[in-house]
Hints:
With 378 residues, the chain is an alpha/beta fold.
Amino acid sequence: MNDPRAHRPTRVEIDLEALKHNFYQAQRLAGPGQGVLAVVKADAYGHGAAHVAMALQGVGVEMFGVAIVEEGVALREAGVVCPILVLGGLYPGQEENLLRYGLVPTLFDMDVARRLDSCARAAGVVLPYHMKVDTGMSRVGFRPDDLPRVLEELGALSGLRMDGLFSHLAMADEPENTVNQKQLEIFRGCLDRVRQAGFAPRYVHLSNSAALLTREVPECNLSRPGILLYGALPSPAFAGRFDLKPVMSFRTRIAQIRKVPEGTGVSYGHRFVAERPTVLAVIPVGYADGYSRQLSNVGEMLVRGQRARVAGTVCMDWTMIDVTDIPDVAVGDEVTLLGCDNGQCITADEWAERIGTISYEVFCQFSKRVPRLTNDRR
Length: 378
């Protein structure tokens, strides 16, 4: 079963050297005295969190950020020893695993804080946490107006210790939007209140990828890049301004060549009808793998360094492409759905634009049945 020829040729390839390059770019942008929290939630945006974290923990990462406890546990079981911050919620019954695996919770709810305090005191430990404040995202976080009451109660919970304070920018991918400055000012006020109440958070952080690319926040000593690490930009506004390398490629091989006459309908609903004698390549990739049905008749793939348009509806397990104008195409030829081939590239941003979404979703949509293969040189 270890013979790669025994497996379907469809795979996602992860370039860990490109990942490290992007991490070093994030360090450079953060500047001296700034740590980097690498966001690896959602399986490292579909790139494979264990591989990504193991590659980064040896090159200077301060900590990792995950969304849920289960993601943190998986990293620990994979051998990750760096601090892991759970950015999302903590749900009843998860306290034991949080403590057992040495995960750092985010607090934005006093019921959760009381529950954690009780568990920590019962275990005879003082649990570090990061406090999240809502400065304008209107998602999760303590409201600034509630801080006096919240801080007073947190100060009385002897099983907890504030180790960090953070918030999240709602408009960071629009650098000139005045909401960013307003949120920054609110955050500064929250930081002042926290310190005046006697807390001394070791980490203060606000900048995600977009803010890291455009904004200096001297009060902070930690940044939280996510999409930047994977070689994509938060929005087209940043195009061409930064030296990033794509980390993910999505490839397969042609399973069959079919020659059909003019007028032949292709795939479900015959949404593609051949307007000339046409050569079709049948590709073992479908929407069950994460290749969106919205790419039907509009998506493109690379074969022999040339673009081939999707012909007809994307099926669950198969997709057809029109290779009529590409000479000598054969069964077994490599097909690139995301990535580069002989100087031609299909990017996550291009893919996202075709289906009306963002690169984040493109990366996250590849299913578990598509293996992630790395070029790990450790």
